[in-house]
Amino acid sequence: MQLSEQEIVRRENLQKIKDLGINPYPPEAFPVNAFAADIKANYKEEILDDGTKNRLNYQDVCVAGRIMAQREAGKAMFMNIQDSTGQIQLYLRRNEMGEGEDFTFFDVLIKKLLDIGDVIGVKGYVFNTKTGETSIHVTELKLLAKALRPLPIVKRDAEGNVHDAFTDPELRYRQRYVDLIVNPEVKETFLKRTKLVNSIRQFLNEQGALEVDTPVLQAIPGGAAARPFITHHNALDVPFYLRIANELYLKRLIVGGFDWVYEFSRNFRNEGMDRTHNPEFTILEFYVAYQDYFWMMETTEKMLEKAAIDTNGTTDVKVGENTISFKAPFKRVSIFDAIKEHSGFDVSEMDEAGLRDVCKKLHIEVDKTMGKGKLIDEIFGETAEKHFIQPTFITDYPVEMSPLTKKHRSKSGLVERFELFCNGKEIANAYTELNDPIDQRERFEEQVKLMERGDDEAMFIDHDFLRAMEYGMPPMSGIGFGIDRLAMLFTNQASIQEVLFFPQMRPESF
RNA sequence: GAUUCCGUAGCUCAGUCGGUAGAGCAUUUGACUUUUAAUCAAAGGGUCCCGGGUUCGAGCCCCGGCGGAAUCACCA
Hints:
Blueprint: H1 5-19, H2 36-42, E1 45-47, E2 53-55, E3 61-73, E4 76-83, E5 86-93, H3 94-97, H4 104-113, E6 119-128, E7 134-145, E8 155-156, E9 162-163, H5 169-174, H6 176-182, H7 184-206, E10 210-211, E11 217-218, E12 230-233, E13 238-242, H8 247-255, E14 260-268, E15 280-289, H9 293-312, E16 316-319, E17 322-325, E18 331-334, H10 335-343, H11 352-361, H12 372-383, E19 392-395, E20 417-422, E21 425-432, H13 437-453, H14 463-470, E22 476-482, H15 483-491
Parallel strand pairs: 5-7, 10-14, 18-19
Antiparallel strand pairs: 1-2, 3-4, 3-6, 4-5, 6-7, 8-9, 11-13, 12-13, 14-15, 15-22, 16-17, 19-20, 20-21, 21-22
Helix pairs in contact: 6-7, 7-9, 7-15, 11-12, 13-14
The protein binds one RNA strand of 76 nucleotides through α1, β3, β4, β5 and β8.
């Protein structure tokens, strides 16, 4: 291994620390009793009549964290350490750190052998410096973990400007741990993502929904139209697919008698990667017996309004140039009205030839494998989709592109389906679910025809799913939310890689 | 998968017309007992992503590859 100058110095320092009889990776617990952010927010002191200070709290703290900066000042020293809540300054004095006249600990270990990046624990008392910085006056220091690689040094000045920011996306994503250490706003983004997920989970649990787990390894990759990853089970000697959706399993559970089930489903799709697609991603799906897609729209509004407030404290979310309001209710527009409004064409009564003609006039590329449904979807995607910035339900899709959806109660050729668009992107997809097993079998057979026509994303027939439906599937409504995209919206990130801790990358060679 | 752009010290970046490789931070040595982008003095640190080619001479020009980003296609 080729070591840099700084790595060699740190390895030498490690050996010197061992030579001093100090374990650079001690096993025993360190009794942390305070955190940087709490101390800085809550420390209090008063000035007495004689001018001396009376420190009121945090006079016996144990704090652990990573050294982020060192400033030597003669026989004293300042450090910034960073714990899970933020940074706080340490103040150390030579004559307080030794035993008697032996100042080895301060002169050698602290001044020479500790480096930026090392994890330490300190005991001491809190005070305010002359310049007003709340700091820990350290009386004891313990090395908890020696760092052998130098961190990127990011500096922030008094105005809050960042200097020498660690920005290279490749390094940030491949070494997310470093990104999280030196870029506090990255940590913020992920904390928000978890707040969002917690809010949704809380909402669903309070409504009486049941969180469940269903198979990731599936013999038939159902519930969506996408290319799957394929793997192999050795003992059974059969192929398995990583799930592209969990829809058909959740519906089986509704057959089994649960009224409302949900799952945050990690799905896998073997498709291109870009700033809105990662090969593995998270969809929240839930299915609710005896409800329809109108009820689902109202539930979606409630859930997202709460999620916005829980995540950002307000229903307004700033995304790039736009401010998006998640205040319920959301607009509802049928897909045909949306197309008419943004393309000028009324495609509601058109056959496949008419649709192909419209595509030609709009200069939309199509191929022979596309059926009526896919053509309509294409026209919508090219002309209308990007205009829906505020949350909008696009409703009543053509039957051809919705093989799992119940036919519309009053409009022939359509199904009871909506997609929720936000900032010009789809973030949810919901149906009044098809529960007629004869109809479902016919729809699957239509998919087989599409497959034969060359559509490699058409759905497989899942015979066990049909069997379950034949036992009697309660009417229900179901929905899927793109959780990563929701997280992007709520954290104002333009790239999915910014809301995934470890986005997929080409494997690194060492 | 296609196109465009990018790859120089641990990090962030300069590098002119093709002519001995530069800065700030970090590192090392020294000074400083309330500093905070600490300051002051000095020093060290490079497979210029990899491999070819052109040239007397390549970080720079040409070709191929690797990695990343953006746009497009597929998709959520």
